[in-house]
Task: structure prediction
Amino acid sequence: MSAERIEQVPLDRVRLDPEQPRQAVDEAELGLLRASMSELGRTVQYITVAPEADGSWRLLSGERRVRAAQSLGWAWLPAVVVDDPTDAPTRFVRQVAENAARSPLRPWELCQAIDRMRGMAGPSEIAAATGISVRTVHNYLTVLEHPHLVEALRGGKSLRSVLAAATDTGADTGAAGPSPQRSLRAARRATTTLVSTWDQLAPSERAALLAVLRPLLGDPASADPPEAVAGGR
Result:
């Protein structure tokens, strides 16, 4: 467990972390934060830092508070000082969690963060850190497989609109075919949908679907080729 203490940290010695997940600062949000800090004072605006060998402080969380304090002309902020910060991957996951808890990351920032975290944590851990659902994490992982979808997010589009546009246009993924992982995810989604709607199907519709599925599942009960019944009702 890292040793922690509270100190007054000079802002001119705080070094921002270029790897932190929030890449853009909304000026309107920064203005609201600045007004709040001006009214409430600095004693409730803790940041988290780690001491560096050169006497500076590496900022672990609180970049917007630092920027707001600097614009107010403040010389220092109270900080939680972590003497022995965690390893870089764990520190990044923690930064994502702290940023998302205060203000949701933008879709492009989330995409970048998930791209980095997928080598550090599983989907459930990523979901917990970002405050989004596991399903949404999987949607971002799908987007990351296709550079043109990533570029659409970079351009300011929402995840929903990017996925909808890709589905509506049947956009080419740029690969010879879907990856095994993507095919598995698609199969799982389709299976979940089928299970949830099975009771609503007429007996003839169920029979037609069973005739398609049995050969795919290796069930010898049906020898009908899928193409003969795929559209049957």
In short: Residues 146 and 173 are 6 Å apart (CA to CA).
